[in-house]
Amino acid sequence: MVLDKIKSPNDIKKLNEAELPALAQEIREFLIQKISENGGHLASNLGVVELTMAMHLTFQLPQDKIIWDVGHQSYTHKILTGRREGFDHLREYSGMSGFPKRKESKCDCFDTGHSSTSISAGLGYAEAREITGEQYKVISVIGDGAMTGGMAYEALNNASRLNTNFIIVLNDNNMSISENVGGLSSHLGNLRTANVYQDLKSGVENSLNKIPFYGERMVTRIRRTKSGIKQLFIPGMIFENMGIIYLGPVDGHNIAEMRRVFRDASKVNGAVLIHVITKKGKGYLPAERHPARFHGAEPFKVDTGLPSRPRTKANYTDIFSSVMRKLGERDSKVVAITAAMQDGTGLKRFHNMFPDRFFDVGIAEGHAVTFAAGLAAAGLKPVVAVYSSFLQRAYDQILHDVCIQDLPVVFAIDRAGLVGSDGETHQGIFDLSYLSAIPNMTVLAPKNKWELSDMMKFAVNFGHPVAIRYPRGEAYAGLKEFREKICYGRSELVWQEHQIALLAVGSMVKEAEEVRRLLKSMGYFCTLVNVRFVKPLDTALLDQLARSHQLLVTMEENVATGGFGEHVSHYFSEKTPDLVPQLIHIALEDKYVEQGNVDILKKEHGLDVESMIKRIVTGYVRK
Predict the structure, then answer these.
(1) Do residues 500 and 526 lie in contact, with contact meaning Cβ atoms separated by under 8 Å?
(2) What is the pLDDT of residues 423-442, one digit of tens each?
(3) Distance CA 249, CA 276 (A)
(4) Is the peptide bond before 249 cis (omega within 30 degrees of 0)?
(5) Is residue 393 flagged as an active site residue?
(6) Which of 65, 83, 91, 280 is catalytic?
(7) pTM of this prediction?
(8) Please, which residues have CB within 8 angstroms of residue 441's CB and are 6 or more apart in sequence?
(9) Angle, nearest 10°, between helix axes 179-193 and 195-209?
């Protein structure tokens, strides 16, 4: 196998031209096999095999810096830098990350995981290179989806002033190539990057600018005329007009063509964007036909592409999808917004039924929130469906545009808490902290699938900002018999006894139920509270529990700082100093959580039943 020759960075340079197609095929076969066993990002990685090979053939790693936007398409990069064995434990606890990690390899120069960041980071590297006097190339790879994010254009605007080489690779897996446009653009691209052309261009402009009064006008008119002609033929004029040289489109599966363009781009003294056309899922028919399904794939059968462990029970996203459809049927003012996550957030059904009330704004969470604020100010009932870790990108808009105006925007926050294999950049463990700090915001968390439905119905008619956070995975179907009406600011008292009160937030109710059962078998009397409202606190119930119990235990799948437990402590110490009960806060430490199975992560961080019982029994002081 050709792949066996790749053991360390730059080994690909030792191969002959005839071996490259075989290597591409073997990489695809390797990725399909490994991801079918362990899960991971498949379609995006299959689409960039040749693109990655071309970059590794052209540039020298780790000296040159390749920055992957988001980074879920970096699997081939990892293979070519000697990390093939790591795929046996890809995205597992203490295993290899599914994203670039600086601590993992010197060939990963920047940690990524969220979208639209690579151009900003690359620009930082390019400017730092000039200050330090080092010699290396900087290449930022960004997808057409990530280019919908405003941060990318902020970076492009800044990059246009560069006077040093900076290469931006636009990986476009959505647009087809027009042969006429592509051929002409390629020809003009060659001409514009040729040394003779660059020298001639600079010489003519310098000479004309020396002519008093008329010289500068002549240069401006020539530029306008040239730009007008190029506008007719070149699809990248938006970048040219920003001051960034555009090359392409280029066939992203033609290694020789890409290597030539990369070499040409390296000659430019400034920012240059290479438009590369790739096919998402290339080489595996199920992924080509259903790229969204194979974006983040669970283990599957290679011959059919079907999941090897089909889901038999509804998850929280399914429940949200169903309730949104019902809300849309009942109320014509309900509208839905997503940031390029229609399938992931469960809004596809709503989109199909109410296309005029569905809005996909692209990877632009900040815009999504302020857009929702405008809809709400105009009298509609917007629901913003978003992953917890991505909502962080819109914090200012939540605070400034929604909550200051007290507008009725509902935030349906999926993937809250520990999400597992995607690691630090995707764990939703900060939302309770950053949301509950904002005035006018109400924060809820459901204990089971029925409560999520009830909370959504409450939220769309509440008339103020509301955030409902729920976890990834199978929706809890226990405690069905406990379904009190949702009342603002009121918790649900599931079982009432004395001694120990367990106050569990959302997904932790399931664990709290088991903790209570085991504590009772040990002779303890336990009350179980389904918190429901993280903000506002149910202070009346807290006072009641403090008087009738010796120990209060808060339980949340969130970092400790700023979380529910900290707010409970603050309430007792500041508002009722004469009634401060014994408190134990069960939460995550204030640090980032790496990738891994959720059950393993809970055990490692003390959120499993055994660890919680040990801590409660050890910390409980009988009075």
Answers:
(1) yes
(2) 899 999 999 999 999 999 99
(3) 6
(4) yes
(5) yes
(6) 280
(7) 0.87
(8) 398, 403, 435, 465, 466, 467, 535
(9) 70
